[in-house]
Amino acid sequence: MPQLNPNPWFFIMMISWFTYSMIIQPKLLSLISMNSPSSKTSTTTTPTPWTWPWT
C-alpha cells in the first residue's frame, strides 16, 4: 500500500492549526463568560440529630 506524500498534508495541517489557534480560538474565548466569584459568605447549618426510637 503506497504511503501518502506528507508535504501537502503537513502544510494543510499547519495552516488549519494556525487558523484555529490565532483566529478562531480568541473569538470563541471572548464569547464565554466565566462566573465571577461571589462575595456572599457561606452559611453552615448544623444538622439535627436523629432520634432513634429504641434509645
Describe, in plain words, how this protein is organized in 3D:
Helix content is 47%, strand content 0%. It has 55 residues and is mainly α. The protein is elongated and about 80 Å long. The mean pLDDT is 78.
The rough form would be described as elongated
Unreliable residue runs: none
Query: What amount of the residues lies in strands?
Result: under 5%
Radius of gyration: 29 Å
What do the pLDDT scores average to?
A: 78
Number of strands: 0
Order of secondary-structure elements: H
Helical fraction equals: 40-55%
Largest sheet: none
Number of DSSP helices?
Answer: 1
Helices and strands: which structural class? mainly alpha
N-to-C terminal Cα separation, in Å?
80 Å
Pfam families: ATP-synt_8
Keywords: ATP synthesis, CF(0), Hydrogen ion transport, Ion transport, Membrane, Mitochondrion, Transmembrane, Transmembrane helix, Transport
Family: Belongs to the ATPase protein 8 family.
GO molecular function: proton transmembrane transporter activity
Short account of what is shown:
One of its GO terms (cellular component) is mitochondrial membrane. The protein is mainly α and 55 residues long. The protein contains 1 helix and no strands.
List the helices and strands and how they pair.
Elements: H1 6-31
Attribute tags:
55 residues; mainly alpha; 0% strand; elongated; mitochondrion; CF(0); proton transmembrane transporter activity; hydrogen ion transport
